[in-house]
Design a protein that fits this description.
The protein is mainly alpha-helical and about 200 residues long. Helix content is about 65%, strand content about 0%.
């Protein structure tokens, strides 16, 4: 950040501000200290759980992170459960029908899921389902003034689909390749020979 152009204090300065006030801001932020002193002050604050204050809304950063953890865990947990529920059966089916049209279609979809950037896929979903069709909300966790489970679920559909699609692509490949390898093991061939 020190090598970047500009001065971080400019975020707090107005055009009519007194130069003494600008210097007081610089001192209060610790920007008048050498870089190594700033670093050790930052490490000390970090070890005490002080992540500083947001420039955007002047709230403690740690408080904002803690407020958003439940929503993040809900989103990630839901997408992980859906990823496992979809990728394991699809991987087993593809391995069982190796080199058939089912396997080729599922492989093609998984290659797409692995190849495209997740943020781009999310933007495409927003464009299609929020902007073009108007079926789903494009942002936020809930509608202002509405506090229901269904409203929150409606807002979660696009992010969950985005995370699940990419997760399924990776897990599917893993399940498929391991299942194919296991089906070629001697104990499986022995089981087939015995009529299992």
């Amino acid at each position: 950040i020190k090598l970047a152009p500009g001065d971080p204090v400019n975020s707090f300065v107005t055009p009519d501000m007194n130069p003494d006030d600008v210097e007081r801001i610089r001192q209060s932020l610790g920007l008048d200290q050498p870089i190594y002193v700033q670093y050790f002050i930052w490490i000390g604050n970090l070890l005490q759980g002080n992540l500083g204050y947001s420039i955007v809304n002047s709230q403690p950063v740690l408080q904002q992170i803690l407020e958003r953890i439940p929503a993040t865990l809900g989103l990630v947990g839901t997408s992980l459960v859906l990823t496992l529920l979809l990728s394991i059966p699809l991987g087993l089916v593809a391995a069982n029908y190796e080199n058939t049209w089912i396997d080729k279609v599922l492989n093609g979809i998984s290659y797409i899921g692995i190849s495209i950037p997740i943020f781009w896929f999310g933007m495409i979903l927003i464009d299609v389902f929020s902007i073009q069709l108007g079926w789903l909300p494009s942002l936020g966790m809930r509608t202002i003034g509405v506090d229901s489970f269904w409203d929150m679920a409606e807002h979660a559909i696009l992010p969950v689909i985005t995370l699940t699609f990419q997760g399924c692509a990776a897990y599917y490949r893993y399940v498929r390749s391991n299942t194919i390898n296991q089906l070629k093991e001697e104990y499986v061939l022995f089981g087939y020979a015995k009529g299992l």
